[in-house]
Amino acid sequence: MAIRASYKVFKSSFDSWEKMAHQVTEFLTTLGPGKVIGVSHSQENQHGVMIVWYWDVDSTETVAESV
């Protein structure tokens, strides 16, 4: 199994920043503090986006071993 960086996007044109932040914190809580890399956000006009960056286990890849 390989560990890789991953992300989840939360976006809305209608929900408030408070509601979107609540959704992000719920997701962060499920990840736990050891997996979180960071959170970024952006806004343009009525469109808000928050991205959660985190470490994930990819069971389809194998980690290369050095010899």
What does this structure look like?
The protein has about 70 residues and is an alpha+beta fold. The protein has one domain (about 1-60): Cell Cycle, Chain A (2-Layer Sandwich), CATH 3.30.1070. Helices cover about 20% and strands about 50% of the residues. It is built from one helix and three strands. The chain has a three-stranded antiparallel beta sheet. Strand 2 (about 35-45) and strand 3 form a beta hairpin. The protein is elongated and about 40 Å long. The two termini are about 20 Å apart. About 5% of the residues are buried. Residues about 60-65 have low confidence and may be disordered.
Summary of the model, kept short:
This protein is 22% helix and 48% strand.
Q: How do the strands and helices of this protein lay out in sequence?
A:
Layout: E1 2-12, H1 17-31, E2 36-44, E3 47-58
Antiparallel strand pairs: 1-3, 2-3
Unreliably modeled segments:
62-67
Question: What is the CATH fold-level name?
Answer: Cell Cycle, Chain A
What is the level 1 CATH name?
Alpha Beta
- How much strand content do the residues show? over 45%
Number of domains: 1
User: Total helix count?
Assistant: 1
Shape: elongated
Structural class: alpha+beta
| Mean pLDDT across residues | 88
| Radius of gyration from the alpha-carbon trace, in angstroms | 15 Å
**CATH architecture verdict:** 2-Layer Sandwich
Biggest sheet strand order reads 1-3-2
